[in-house]
Write a structure and sequence with these properties.
With 232 residues, the protein is mainly alpha-helical. It has two domains: 47 residues, Arc Repressor Mutant, subunit A (Orthogonal Bundle), CATH 1.10.10; 150 residues, Orthogonal Bundle (Tetracycline Repressor, domain 2), CATH 1.10.357.10. Helices cover 67% and strands 0% of the residues.
């Protein structure tokens, strides 16, 4: 997916002028918050959530410890805020990509493939975000996991909405969509754990094959090639 967006959580204003500058307080605070959220993502990706400290984050962001605690209660709150905003940005970007695919009059399977491709490419293009929030959320505790679960739920609901538009579709248990989302998530996490984030887009055929199989949707090319996933 090649779009003109900034990387997720990349601060829009990084260098505030020193000394008196006349900038609105809201602008300054917003910049500091953005820098802390971005720094949290980078530090957690590098060191892991448990080892990451507030001092690490403030040093990376160029923001004082005092300012950190004016904006966030603790490390957990900052991490959850970064996860929440990052998820919102990811969803917006993917929804825009999915809308473009839907407007191209592709077959249902080709449209679904394009959506999977956009999702996997976004992950590969965002290594810090992917490592921090795919691999380190479990270490951050229950509140953070709730945010991650909401992201998988969005993917499952998107899949369900696509499936509902297929004429003569096979009915599947409601939890099937979440199972497909979970399988996709675990396939991505395996690549990340093994340091193979650049190979995440290569999961496209596998993810498509697994999701279509779970949803009982025929893959025309795979069927023609005796069950081997292929281009649609």
């Amino acid at each position: 997916m090649k779009d003109s967006f900034r990387p997720l959580l990349q601060p829009s204003l990084t260098d505030l002028p020193r000394g008196p500058h006349g900038l609105a307080r809201e602008l300054v605070t917003g910049s500091q918050r953005q820098r802390l959220l971005h720094a949290m993502t980078v530090v957690v990706a590098e060191k892991g959530y448990i080892a990451a400290t507030v001092a690490d984050v403030t040093a990376r962001a160029g923001v004082s410890r005092k300012t950190f605690y004016e904006l966030f209660a603790d490390k957990e709150e900052c991490f959850i805020a970064a996860a929440d905003i990052g998820r919102e940005l990811m969803v917006k970007r993917l929804e825009a990509s999915f809308a473009r695919s839907s407007a191209q009059s592709l077959s249902p399977v080709a449209t679904f493939r394009a959506s999977i491709r956009a999702y996997l490419e976004l992950i590969a293009e965002e290594p810090d975000f992917a490592v921090a929030f795919f691999l380190e959320t479990a270490a951050a505790g229950g509140r953070a996991r709730e945010h991650q679960d909401s992201c998988r739920s969005w993917f499952a609901q998107t899949m369900r909405a696509w499936h509902a538009k297929i004429p003569g579709r096979r009915r599947v248990p409601p939890e099937t969509y979440m199972a497909a989302a979970d399988a996709t998530y675990e396939a991505v996490c395996r690549c990340l754990r093994q340091g193979r984030i650049g190979e995440v887009p290569a999961l496209e055929d596998t993810v498509l094959y697994v999701c279509l199989a779970l949803l009982g949707v025929a893959n025309p090319v795979a069927d023609a090639e005796e069950g081997e996933p292929g281009e649609v």
